[in-house]
Amino acid sequence: MTNSVRPIERVLARRVWDSRGHPTVEAEIQLHGGVLGRAIAPAGASTGSGEVVDLRDGGRRLGGLDVTHAVRNVTDIISPAIRGCDVFDQKGLDQLLVDLDGTDDRHRLGGNALIAVSMAALNAAAAAAGQPLWRYLLGDSQALIPLPEIQIFGGGSHAKKRVDVQDFMVVAPGASSFAEALDWTAEVYLAAGQRMEAAGRLRGVADEGGYWPVFKTNEEALEFLLWSIEDTGHSPGSDLAISLDIAASEFYEAGHYCLGLEGQEIDSDGLVELLVGWVDRFPIVSVEDPLAENDTIGMQRFTAAVGDRVQVVGDDYLVTRADHVIQAVHDGACNALLVKPNQVGTISESHQALEAAREAGFGTIISARSGETEDVTIAHLAVGWRAGQLKVGSFSRSERMAKWNEILRIEECLGDGTRFAGGSVLVAR
User: pTM higher than 0.85, yes or no?
Assistant: First the structure.
């Protein structure tokens, strides 16, 4: 890090496109001498009610999803306000953005406008320091290459609810490097495709690159995933294990959970019982949003039942907010945090949530969104913040592979002394 002041000279914004073919906001921050940083705001499909507003134009054009207002807010309101600010003062800059918006949910300027500017400033600061972003963030700390969490089957809101559970993923706790973890998981991905083809199952590609499968039940998807791991010759549980994102808020209605595949309606206790049964029978090491975001009692019961064996991750439940993390610690409602910077609106607030989780002994996972871009900032955050885990999707979409490939480059740059997180970050807390 440097102590010298580098004022922001110019802020640009443009309308670009994400992986779903929807418009989104790119911000570009220019410093004196031609140094610049860019970043693009992602967007989620499965969103928690506590997330900041992803500002869209509404109306008929592009299904109401255009972002001309958010882009204009960067150009007309944010740019004049932050011009001249020190790009190395990330906290001060982010607080100015928060104050400039002046709303709890960032609906005035748009969370998409704020996060694009906040990330662009961070990238510009690293460029001004003459360092890659991960190194700039690390300072004197030792790098930690994250364990990848990779989608094999996509369901829920990412695949038109063809399967109720949103993400069926694989992690490689037995791998010795990030590169090896990718290799092993790629083998599972290929094996799953071959197995479904052999079974005559229709399949497409979900929003995050995993297969968009046709299964008779949610549990059948788990069985196919386990068989696919076994097909690779790797040991289920020790070499390769299963991670789930239930995204239970997406099928929660009027106090009950409606499982469309099974045609079943169950209460909170019933879903806890179902998921505990899966943990008992399958090599599952992580479960994200097992209950709905407002079902704290259910989250407590599930964590009490399996939290000594698996990672219980809060996504919609925590929405990358430090105060939510602190409350969850008090409630015993989970033991890991999913960090999505666009959920809260700025880099500084995201880091505050991560630090609150770390102080509590929680696991921390940096995550992409279902509507992604070629932007690789989060890959650098995962390394620079020593998060230990990274979740960005699957293998078959380039906006996902851009992040995985960036970590490969970082791992290569670090060389033989690289520390890979591996399964150590999955130890139940």
Answer: yes
